[in-house]
């Protein structure tokens, strides 16, 4: 608007939408500082009011910090020291910090953060909620749960069908999200083995003779008696089949969740370690398939989980730095011929060095083919730490999805990338980092499961079965972290609410980013061709 409060003339739709994007950030010249100052001032005043309201009890006339205290020299000296140190700190941060907000800075994969993220984090930080447990964070735990559902929906999980219900949560970063995915997949693969041992050697022995016999759906041979399954068949039950086992046992044989968990505990990979189970049943060490452009967190996760970094097999890439499906098939077939279990295949959606998206749609097709024709099942995980938020470009504000309305916010996704993002809904789990292409302050990683029951594989207190009331429980028991800042969840949530996870929100922002990157790439290419004509 102009100074007199009227809209300037001759503003087209693109200019208006860019102005909308501009309202989301502080700006390279701090153009929106007045907005941030106002919002943070409001947050500070609300913090003051909250403390005063809580302390303002007729029975409590005691003031912890009195006016007489403030007059003492020792008090004044302490405040002066704090003021001086704070001023010095501000100067050092200004002088020595990296100017990620500047459009002239391109040395790192980093950028400015949204006003909503900044004010959300700063406002919540004062209350210092710990999302490790609901009692320490009643509001921010609920916010984190909502963020997980928002991310799951944006990624395409169960938008039309509520069964199975997806689940997601905030982690400190993508490395921990990847580690949790490794952990969950490892536990998923060994769960049927543990159940078999608990029936043969433990308190579930009655299941070996019960009538009718306990049956499960095999990968490609229909329903079979569980105790008649071979080790290969047990290791290749589909994720949904494994996750349904506790529910089936409860419904058919009235086995309570608590009894089942106690009976399984001595035989779980969580208890024994995978090496014990592998030696006992003569199982070869399992492997993960992952693109050669993988992030270093994957071999690190292999080391931490006990799978071993050498069991993360590099799949060759094509000329676009994408996983080569033909080489993936070759390496999968090698595992099958060697009786080597396959934990999963990891598809990278936005590699660190190249921004490349692996052919997820083809990987899903290969997984389905191997299940049907070869009796081999494995999980598919997407490392979409960088690329996940680009799925917002698929969805209209009215909820319509790909193909229903034009998905062009600024510069469109290319058809190949669009196809891969549409296939996210078929992956078993997805890493997505709000502190990357979500423009959120650190630390804010994320992990989403297509089937929310997978989270029970990572807790020490619950079996893989849904309990009434679990959706109101803690977020902190389902992962690696202990204490975790509620401020990160709020920063993410407030940005989601302010921008929107659709074409008009994040889709517009990321569409402009695609356009800008394409323009810079074109300019650099032109300069190279001018200097080296043979490249033209």
TrEMBL record:
Modification type N6-(pyridoxal phosphate)lysine: residues: 436
One GO MF term: carbon-carbon lyase activity
BP GO terms, sorted: carboxylic acid metabolic process
Could you confirm whether the keyword Magnesium appears in this record?
no
| SUPFAM superfamilies registered for this protein in UniProt | PLP-dependent transferases
Q: Which UniProt keywords apply?
A: Lyase, Pyridoxal phosphate
Query: InterPro entries from the xrefs?
Result: GrpII_AminoAcid_Decarb, PyrdxlP-dep_de-COase, PyrdxlP-dep_Trfase, PyrdxlP-dep_Trfase_major
Write down the Gene3D superfamilies for this protein, in alphabetical order. Answer: Type I PLP-dependent aspartate aminotransferase-like (Major domain)
Specify the domain of life of the species encoding this protein. Eukaryota
Tell me the cofactors it needs.
pyridoxal 5'-phosphate
- Family from the record: Belongs to the group II decarboxylase family.
Checking PANTHER family in the record gives: PTHR42735, PYRIDOXAL PHOSPHATE-DEPENDENT DECARBOXYLASE FAMILY PROTEIN (PTHR42735:SF4)
User: What is the name of this protein?
Assistant: Pyridoxal-dependent decarboxylase domain-containing protein
Species of origin = Colletotrichum simmondsii
